[in-house]
Amino acid sequence: MTASTRFGPAVPPPADSDSGFGELRGGNLGVRIATDAGEIDAAQALRFHVFYEEMGAVPSEAMARTRRDSDDFDVVADHLLVVDHAIGPGPEGVVGTYRLIRQTAAARVGRFYSADEYDIAPVTGFPGHVLELGRSCVHPGYRNRAVMQLLWRGIAAYVFLHRIDLMFGCASLPGTDPEALADELTWLYHNHLAPPALRPRALPHRYVEMRRRDPATLDARRIAASLPPLIKGYLRLGGFVGDGAVIDHAFNTTDVAVVVKTDLVTDKYYRHYERQVRDALD
User: Fold this and answer.
1) Rounded to two decimals, what is the model's pTM?
2) Which whole number is the average pLDDT over 260-268?
3) Which residues span the domain enclosing 127?
């Protein structure tokens, strides 16, 4: 991920937003779209805690002062929230978040976030509705299967509501040394490379070669187990990676582009919840 050069306070959702699908519940936890500035602020505070305090990203002076991770895209994005109702139903209960940017929202900024790292022309030229996913994080005390499944349920509901055909974004591996991640990058390239028609490519001045090992020497089981949960989630949904990694020193990560066609989303994460989503909309 790369940080925008301008930062501001939390803002309310766009006035023309039609993004809500109600709330999907799992015990005390619920997943829904943020509805006011306070909830967006809570998501930004959680992002700051995870990305900067925990993972070692380098904040701008403004972010260090406000203790919020924010950029220009927050103004136009929809913010998916996991809320623990045992703590509270509003900002105080936010324990997970995902940022969702549709084409109409990206047009208001002039670009998608991932365009700072990748040539995404194959994605933006796709004949259908496109959604960019990013800024995913979960509070350390809630990193379990139930919360991750709830986030995916929320994404499935959003995809269904807005008839999204293609999802994409940048997913991160920890650290900025590509040699330390050589096995993972090589394995991703040789096993999950996107077809040419859908393949983002790292911008020339940021391109880092992913083919760093002989693929025949790799321990696929170990690598699959070592990948971050978010990347494994995309792959389980039939996702692909782009060509080239990108080093993001500000966030202390090595990024890969991920592309997921929603017609490849498994029954577990989409069709299984179709009726429940329709019920939530009634």
Assistant:
1) 0.88
2) 68
3) 24-281
Pairing of strands 201-202, 24-26: unpaired
For the chain, the domain total comes to: 1
In a domain, 13, yes or no: no
* Residue that has been written with the tokens 């803002």 in this structure: 11
Domain annotation covers residue 12: no
Q: Which has the minimum average pLDDT: 83-92, 152-161, 231-240, 258-267?
A: 258-267
Q: Would 30 be classed as within a structural domain?
A: yes
pLDDT at 95: 98
Residue 178 lies in a domain: yes
